[in-house]
Amino acid sequence: MTKLSLLLASAALAASLSPPAQAQQPPASWRMSAKEVPVVDYTINADHSITFTLAAPDANSAALMFGEPQMGRSLPMSKGADGRWVATVPPVEPDIYEYSVKLDGADLHPSILEVPSNPPAFWQVQDVAHGSVNMHSYYSKVQGRMRGVHVYVPAQYYAQPKRHFPVLYLWAGRYETEWVRTGYANVIADNLIASGKAQPMIIVMGNNTTGPLASPAFKNAEVIEQELKAELMPFIESHYRTINDRAHRATAGLSFGGGTALIVGLRNLDRFGAVAEFGTGVFGTSKPGEGSASYLTYNPDTITPDLYAKLKAPATSLKPFYMSVGKDDARKPNQIAAYEDFKKHGIDPVFQIVPGDHEYKAFRASLADLLPRLFR
């Protein structure tokens, strides 16, 4: 597995930022001991069906939630005489799947399983040189709060201590943890770099939130843009051996994070030589009532004035300008329309329709397709 190293700020800094506080515990009657929490077991059968079981003899109802939360399916679980609840998911393709159990209306902690492929898929851990994922915290004056960032460094980073590396700033929908936990970005990068298909690179996975609630795409991107330029990029470039020019700096993102990458990247073409989005809603959505008002009408001038001219100018053109969307994603018609609009104005983005819906299946495939195209 990829080594996970944790880099902590100094105790003095932490003390200066956070006043001491006594942790408050709920009353004992509210707490559940570890042995009382049911454990969800699963078996991947020969036909790739999956049988889930858990022992909860005192529970009155149980349902299995299988797939990503926004589009997963719910299967009722049957209770046996031994008090064990059982449900079987019909055969599925090799992939990564999220699951959780709703027990008497309460959600048990969700988890992830892999249905492996033979030969191994691009997202499977393989016997190759592995990089590291470092976790940092820093204080953002722009947002007035602590922020987290995950940084992937390739195996070559520590093996070649004098070498400097290009950087991809990669955004998820919200949190810095998502691209590692569900997106397997580090595993995908390991495999592609080891095979020689992708250049060794640093991948910076920042936090894409600007508050406890989601903001409209453009408002969110404006705050992230300020933080990125004033704080995150200087932090990365002072802590890592980066190549600090636009030809060796890229940004990409999925869904809401794709909007961030698109808006911030296209507004800062002097800093980014490649920009990619996977399934952003900035171009609109075909699901009635979905998304915020900023998603409903696409206007390139809301990103940056004279966008088409800037993308055609040699000094600010992109290598690549990348767009992708899942073949079953409701955003596909709007993505196609935006792509055709770019083409009409003399810009030729890489445009890929990948398997899947608006889900990590599509986002992982998009990342695997993008990485070999960067820093060439």
Automatic annotation (TrEMBL):
Highest rank taxon of the organism: Bacteria
Designated name of the protein: Esterase
Transmembrane regions: none
Gene3D superfamilies: alpha/beta hydrolase, Immunoglobulins
GO MF annotation terms: acyltransferase activity, transferring groups other than amino-acyl groups
InterPro entries: AB_hydrolase_fold, Esterase-like, Ig-like_fold, Ig_E-set, Mycobacterial_A85_antigen
Alphabetized UniProt keyword annotations: Signal
Cleaved signal peptide residues: 1-23
